[in-house]
User: Fold these one by one.
Assistant:
Number 1:
Amino acid sequence: MVRRSRAVAARGSPLTAAAAGDSRPTDAHHPGEVVFYTHTLCPYAHRVSLALAEGRVPHTCVEVDLSRKPEWFTAKGLRLVPALEWPATGEVRKESADLVGLLCERYPGAAERLLPGGSVTWAEAEAALRVCDAGFVSSGMAFLGGGWTVPRTPSRGKTVARTRFERDLDALDRMLEAAGGPYLLGDALSAADVLVWPFAERIELGCRALLDLRMADDDDGEGSPSKWRAVAAWCAAMASRDSVRDLAAPERPLLDAWQRTGRLDFFDYETASVATLREEGKSG
Ligand SMILES: N[C@@H](CCC(=O)N[C@@H](CS)C(=O)NCC(=O)O)C(=O)O
């Protein structure tokens, strides 16, 4: 039986290693098992955590405090998360999209679920990623604030950036319709969704809460619906998945952190994680 990934099984709990700067991996490594170096707020690491969860790949998670990188992390030649290590051989690999591809290559369960029905190829998933990256992801990040910045107060946003982003959402809508939806490559989730979603999730939240633009419909059917119907259906399909719900940061504390710091990547500069934001959400 495939062991369910701990990141997902341990709903709402911190991952297996402490986030302190001098922390060490605390979990015993099982020979042959893969170790996932992550930061739960990093969108690139989020791609890999979704792939591990959806692909049901047994793994050990090690959360790395990026604001105080531990020595054991840099000693592995690592500077960024995500990374995967196979302790049995000492092999360490990085780059989020490559890691998702590697999981599909090495774990038949991941290939079966992320390249569904044998009809979706890795090349198609990569092509969809390229189209989305050059389209709504790039213009969405620019609209949100440019680079990794984010507005501190809600507004309607700059007209030119908004127009470009809306045009790219039109294109995404057409792409989803052409694929038949609700997912990027058709009626089943694939590696394309796993690669693109972490950015879509952040852009959707920032646009809804800070810039008065809706990619998705509200859960409760309240508020104005998104004008991009296929995009809204994609967001709803993704949001209904356990992996997506389990790995997401709570919205209010995440928005508070974005607005306090003016940065989407505030966790590069201060100790924070999905788990600590969840705690803040409970006490706030
Ligand atoms: N191209 C890399 C980007 C990874 C990346 O930028 N990770 C950020 C966190 S979101 C990081 O590790 N930042 C630490 C630093 O810049 O020192 C990938 O796709 O894996």
Number 2:
Amino acid sequence: MSVLRVGSETIHICPGPSKVLARKPGGDHWCFGCRQRLPHTLVIYGDEEPSYYEPVGVLECSGCGRDRTEFGT
Ligand SMILES: [Zn+2]
């Protein structure tokens, strides 16, 4: 982790959660990339050690491998 100072603000630059902790079936969702309803995988990213970041879940499309369950993403 590095720290950047901008004026009086101190910004912590963290690599963020990058490790895949778990992969679970995420159910079927509409993919705006594939324009189909496809099974998705819920990928949980996080750090193994306790950290500033909560684990985050990302839906991964089985078609394109991306989370495009919301329009415009
Ligand atoms: Zn897709």
Number 3:
Amino acid sequence: MSAGNGFNVDALVEPDRVHRNCYADNEIFEREIRQIFHKAWIYVGHESQVPNTGDYATTMIGRQPVIMVRHQDRSIHVLYNRCPHRGAKLCANRAGNTGGNFTCSYHAWQFKLDGKVRHIPIQSGYDNTRFDLNDPNFHMKPVARMEVYRGFVFASLSPTGSSLVDWLGTAIDGINDMCDRAPEGEVEVVPTCFRMIQKSNWKIFLENQLDAVHPSVTHGSTGLAAQQVAKEMEAETGKPAPLSYHYISAFSMEMEKWGDLDVVGHRNGHCVLQGYMGLRPTDPDTLEYDAIMEKHYGAERAKEILDVNIHHLLVYPCLSIQSPLQQLRAVRPISANETMTEIWHFRLKGAPEPIYRRALDYFYLVNSPSTMINADDLYNFRKIQEGLESEGGDWVSFHRNAGQDRVEGDITTSNIGFSEIPMRNQFEAWSDYMKAEDVV
Ligand code: FES
Ligand SMILES: [Fe+2]
């Protein structure tokens, strides 16, 4: 069915395969920006990035540059990064402190931290014009909607649509999992992120995150090398190799074991990969952490929290979260074949330092731009993009276990980790967004 606007989604997306143009066509990409990134809830940042009055962080929502800023009354505002005078961006840096107001570097108009104009230096010349300080056209524009959930700030450029919590639906468990693992129930960001430009479409990154088949193929050689070094080290010292070796050697796990993970598709394209990769050791640091968790939550609740086995959560279309290791990657599409990802890491408030260091090791060893793991993924992404831009075939196959999913309410599950549910689920949401009328 055509969406009534000449854009035929059904010619591109079938239940078990999608057309290569979804990844390679510039017009489709522009429509994604309008229909998905300018309408859905998009992750802006974490409130701990802006702890003090005047602290700000800049990022992109689709094509729109925005500023997240902390106001004097402690509230957070998300504003378009544009001066209402002649259009200059107000903040050129990725982050900083703007003091009690924003001052434009072009003609020094000043704005309060909620975006309202505070002062313009030359006030003469406006009599008998349509200029009016009370007119919102002369204020910095706020995004249409902004909500914070457990410190995670999301914005939508559309004035209508479901609330953030409703939109997240059952996928909210992944964000809760990240925060609940903190003895104080909150996480805080490690001040800055890696930013990386991938030479591939944004959807290729998201699809890979929950692809349980690829690790033992793509990362197998790296995993085996780490395993071998760990063994040599253990033979030499008589002690177990540091846990960080396990982060990499786990990628050499036999393929069948990856298949034991569960994949879950939630409403709106969100997806979860369940299974913990055996990252809960019983070393003294972990035992100390477990004891602190019990003190804060009681034994029963602490066990419940630590037993949650989410390995990976996708908040479609903007986030990939590994909640047990406090990792978050935000997706900022640039063009059909270029995507920026921000790679963030968080600290569990109230947890001992070694627990933070351990997750930081994972951040550096697995998710940073320079790891052997990530490098192999990036190489794949680029090759996928180049293949999809060729005329060697029109379709991308998502046939594995198609038609065999269990559907219960909003949730589609399979206990076959290799099922391509996550890809089918993301494209179901993609179709809904892309079919909607153009008008915001
Ligand atoms: S463009 Fe900002 S004050 Fe003129
Ligand atoms: Fe990978």
Number 4:
Amino acid sequence: MLSNIFLLKGKNFHDLNSLDVYSYPDDILKNGNRDFVKKVIIGHDQGVIENSRNDQDSSNQKIKHELNHFTMDCPVPQVIDDLNVYTSCINSKMIIGLIFNKDDNPHDYKEIFEDLFYEMLNNGKCCKFEDEMEIENFLITLFIDIRRYGDEFIEKASEISFKPTGIFIKVFLFGIDDVGKTSFVRRIKTGEFIDNYLTPTRKFNIEHVQKQNRYLAIWDMPGQRAFREKWFKGIQDSNIIIYMIDVANQLRFEESKRELWNFMNKHDSSGIPLIILGNKTDLIKKPEEQDNTLIRTKQEIIDFFELDRINDRDYFFYFTSVKTNYNMNKIINTLFNTV
Ligand SMILES: Nc1nc2c(ncn2[C@@H]2O[C@H](COP(=O)(O)OP(=O)(O)OP(=O)(O)O)[C@@H](O)[C@H]2O)c(=O)[nH]1
Ligand SMILES: [Mg+2]
């Protein structure tokens, strides 16, 4: 089974510090360790393949696919630091790598790897590898498709008994700045809440949460005005969309409504379920107040945001407080059980 995917990009592969390293779902530089990256590059560059699993299919045997403007060298299997790695060079500029479980044969994946790669990159609206978010999006899509292939074809072929397959759910989380998106993701991931956490998100913040055989990839978008155009790049292949509102800051309702509808009108995401979260309820609901305070506010919010105009998908509205954990378990269960 595919466990990770990564991409190394830079002008000079020998200057590790200048390399951009992207990986999904795990950070391959987790412990600041660039040794692995170095070994990948050495293995590629000089054909020094440590403990190669299959010598006859070596890096010398490169077949170039001359399709449009992206070409990929024939992938090279290597065992690096005990990891089963399969890498290929793109346009002689970037290295893309897959990491498999030890008992996998990477050659089983060669065809699908190449086919998906060409399909995604040379189809007209391809990724140009200039924008960080495009790259991340490319990696997650490739990862999910290769993994699905592994689950559906390779596992099935060798297993007789039924084995449940993993299900990936991509959650696209957006909303204007300061509503609590990153706090929400952190709460799901670690159970923690940090008050007055003033670190606006600048890039896509992608977090993964696993429960049994389901995997959530939550794409937490930056909400500040300057980054809102980027929302359009993150939505691709999403299974659920969450739009977050800060219910305690009604001064920004107009702006938030405008951004929601602007997004819905400009991007066709019809059919993808939408969850609207009215966060920070702890700031409007005092503990001694009854739930009907919230019910009244919910209708007011639905009216203000004209949510009843949404007719191309299911939508749900929930109040949350990431701070007090209000409704958080309900949302987490909903996320894992949708799709
Ligand atoms: N009282 C209260 N504060 C919250 C809650 N959720 C988040 N906050 C606070 O709101 C502030 C902004 O939270 P973030 O999670 O960074 O907001 P964001 O939506 O990710 O903002 P951007 O990344 O700029 O788009 C922080 O100070 C959080 O501590 C909540 O439920 N209640
Ligand atoms: Mg944030």
